[in-house]
Amino acid sequence: MQVECGAQQVNMMKQMFKDMQLSKDSQNDFLAHIQSTRNSLAGVDFSAEILTNGTWPQMETPTCQLPPQLKTCVDRFDFWFKQKNANRVLTWLFAHGQVELQTNYTADKKYQFIVNTFQAAILCLFNEVDEITCKEITTRCQITSEQFKACMMKLCDPKLKVLNKEVNKPVFDANEKIRVNEKFKSAAVRNNLIPQKVVKKKTTEATAEESQQAKQVAKERTFVIQAHIVKVMKAQKQYRYQNVVTDIIRNITMFKADPKMVKEQIEVLIRDEYMKRDENDKANLIYLP
Prior knowledge:
3 domains, 9 strands
């Protein structure tokens, strides 16, 4: 795998698996701490994933004013983690959070809404008020207009109508008032309301890190090719040039060897006097012990 992906990439993957185990252990330790200290998480089933900075893909860290129930959980976890890890700092990635909320206002049955952190902050405002303007929502939740629109487009979707808006258009005026749809009904008890992420097209120009990784992978592949060439020539003593190229491509299974790269490494090994061309037949190679 190191040859295929590069040593740096493999090390990052190893750290990712360590993070996954660390998250499980930390979660168990935190819950044990809560029980031993008889603290309460306000009835919230809380869990946090701990990622090592620099190992995982770069993630945005937008701000969000959490609902009181979630803020209590975050503050207590943060305090507990800092006590155990004095030299480590947590940066909360609210954009990647997921929350499950249960309705207590629907008449026919209770529903569960699966939402992101920003949507949870918006919906929890309606525990305090019956009606609120779009401007007040963005101000109180401290979210950007882009995040607000993405969240509200799903919450106000005409097919579900978790929230009711005054204007039946996919725009949100600052002074438009939003209310909870108390007549909400759905065939499903669990409703996933998380907005679909917009994947930006990746530019064709590689980043400096990607370029460095590509160079490292190419370098490690040349070592593998050279090792196979020497192994073949040591066994054959004399071998046709084209047969060497064919054997190397067939023998290397961890990646698809490029014929051009194989030929280049043959020339490198000739230059370094691991082998030479037959003076009477240039298409024949001779191994030099």
